[in-house]
Design a protein that fits this description.
Shape: globular
Distance between the termini: 57 Å
Number of helices: 9
Structural class: alpha+beta
Number of strands: 13
């Protein structure tokens, strides 16, 4: 049935297009018209745009920068490793020695459970390290996607032209560039704009109205013509920030949790001290 439905909207597009598009911009314009005429949904149109974008965007544009990477030192004790895994919510971590550029490999959180550690005295992180994949900043996302598929790998370490660590990128980051944000069980639901993680930590949906944010956190963040907390943060950065970038104002620390090249979707708020009115 799904194949028949796909053929129906494809036939409608063909009827609308008439002559074959002359180039990519012509095709996008025609698909935009098709979406506006309800021949395809906006979701499908945005996904097609995402497919086009991954053939042009280099890894450096969407990677998590090195200063914001969550790493685990190979000499850390078991409790410290487990706590870091739980607090971050991630499933894969670069393992370093003493310096951030000394990446020994990747730790998969599931390996800690699968190997049934008995006591912390028996724990040696070297036993759990998997090989790391290193890629250049300039690699195009579509090429990396094919490599991820072929190797069944989900994470890569990004290096610059001098072989220094620039950051990391995951399969989820790449897929989100095509289809939009992916929610998982750790993410805030679409009905919750604020969720408390700890006494001083919250996950905030970027669409939360600025006045509601001020009311909930007893502050006065003001920016002309800005209606949402996401818009406020983007305006302060003067760009769309990348994942893990931070911004602090009056004791409120914002960390970008989810973003693409066009917008931010979710931030973590850490209240560092009693904030002052701004």
């Amino acid at each position: 049935m799904s194949e028949i439905k796909d053929n129906n909207w494809l036939d409608k597009i063909k009827d609308l297009l008439g002559d074959a598009p002359k180039d990519k911009d012509d095709l996008i314009s025609l698909l935009d018209t098709a979406a506006k005429n309800n021949l395809i949904t906006q979701d499908i149109f945005q996904m097609i745009l995402g497919v086009f974008s991954v053939s042009e965007i280099p890894v450096r544009e969407i990677m998590i920068p090195r200063p914001h990477m969550i790493t685990i030192n190979v000499n850390e004790e078991l409790n410290a490793v487990v706590n870091k895994v739980i607090e971050s919510g991630h499933s894969r971590f670069p393992v370093i020695h003493d310096k951030p550029d000394e990446i020994l490999g990747i730790l998969h959180a599931k390996d800690l459970l699968k190997n049934q550690i008995v006591t912390s005295d028996d724990f040696d992180l070297h036993d759990y390290i998997r090989p790391a994949k290193f890629i250049p900043e300039s690699k195009r996302l579509n090429i990396l996607l094919n490599e991820f598929k072929a190797s069944r790998n989900h994470i890569a370490i990004v290096i610059d032209e001098h072989s220094n660590i620039s950051g990391l990128i995951t399969l989820e980051d790449l897929i989100e560039e095509i289809i939009g944000e992916i929610d998982d069980e750790h993410d805030i639901s679409s009905k919750e704009l604020i969720i408390q993680q700890a006494n001083n930590k919250y996950i905030i949906d970027a669409l939360l109205p600025l006045d509601e944010f001020n009311k909930n956190f007893n502050c006065k963040l003001i920016d002309e013509d800005i209606e949402t907390i996401g818009g406020f943060i983007v305006n302060k950065f003067e760009k769309v920030p990348k994942k893990q970038e931070t911004f602090e104002i009056n004791g409120l620390l914002f960390t970008v949790l989810s973003a693409d090249s066009k917008k931010i979707s979710r931030v973590q708020l850490t209240i560092k001290k009693e904030q002052k009115n701004s």
